[in-house]
Design a protein that fits this description.
The chain has 249 residues and is of the alpha/beta class. Helix content is 35%, strand content 26%. It has a single domain, classed as Rossmann fold (3-Layer(aba) Sandwich). The C terminus is likely disordered. Bound molecules: adenosine-5'-triphosphate and magnesium ion.
């Protein structure tokens, strides 16, 4: 379970401070698929980076299964991240000099997992890439590279999968394939998923949809709502309460 308490991010912008996330409370229960939508610059990537412990908040707490990331040292944070969190990026971030198989092996080898190669092959099989194990990223399509990145993110059986615009750099057919893989992973593994996207087709597949605007939760929406029956705008505080309330399913 992910719990954010009064999470705030301020960055220096010239001589002024710029608040890119206003204090935000949010709970994502175990197994929930939460999507975050909102205009460019609304704070989606910032929020995901804070949840992943890739970035530190200015104020507030990020609790992963009760552990506050803010209180962890660098090594403890790296271990928690490696064991419990998988991250998928818009631009894949594969290591170009390693094959698909080797890219998936890296996180397993870091943790000294037994049968790492067998496990990597099974993961590539899970994303439909068993025929591409020895291809380098440059020899793979964008969609295939993203599938390798998903396999890598799943390598250590994390309980949480974070994804920042995983279909953002793909055409619609490859995007659909990635959506299917993410939905399959959610169903089979029961993982908690938090995913930022501009792709409404993907967002509507989630259990709960949150909209960020100017660094605030703007409008909670239950997934599968169509554009015409979307919830009306509500003030940020109400939105946060509603989002927390609707997450208890
Ligand atoms: N290190 C930084 N220094 C200054 N401003 C930053 C920094 N990081 C992010 N910002 C600003 O914070 C705001 C939120 O950025 P963020 O990347 O989280 O938005 P986003 O919702 O992910 O946008 P997109 O949909 O384009 O990916 C933006 O206005 C961005 O310019
Ligand atoms: Mg972003």
């Amino acid at each position: 379970m992910i719990r954010l308490e009064q999470l705030k991010k301020v960055v220096a912008s010239g001589s002024e401070d710029l608040t890119i996330l206003h204090p935000l409370d949010l709970e994502v229960p175990e197994g929930q698929f939460l999507s975050i939508v909102g205009p460019s610059g609304s704070g989606k990537s910032t929020l995901l980076g804070l949840i992943a412990g890739l970035d530190a908040p200015t104020e507030g707490s990020v609790l992963i299964d009760g552990v506050n990331l803010v209180e962890l040292g660098e090594d403890e944070l790296a271990r928690l991240r490696g064991e419990r969190i998988g991250f998928v990026f818009q631009f894949f971030h594969l290591l170009p000099s390693l094959t698909a198989l080797e890219n998936v092996l890296v996180p397993l080898e870091i943790f000294g997992i037994l049968n790492a190669e067998k496990k990597s092959r099974a993961l590539l099989d899970e994303v439909g890439l068993s025929e591409r194990t020895h291809h380098y990223p440059s020899q793979l399509s964008g969609g295939e590279q993203q599938r390798v990145a998903i396999a890598r993110a799943l390598a250590n059986d994390p309980s949480i999968l974070l994804a920042d615009e995983p279909t953002g750099n793909l055409d619609s057919s490859n995007g659909k394939h990635i959506i299917d893989i993410i939905l399959g992973v959610h169903e089979r593994r029961g993982m908690t998923i938090v995913l930022a996207t501009h792709n409404m087709e993907l967002a509507r597949m989630s259990d709960v949809m949150l909209e960020l605007k100017d660094g605030r939760i703007h409008r909670p929406e239950i997934a599968n709502a169509t554009a015409t029956d979307a919830a009306p705008d509500v003030p940020a505080e109400d939105a946060q309460t509603a989002a927390a309330g609707s997450s208890g399913q």
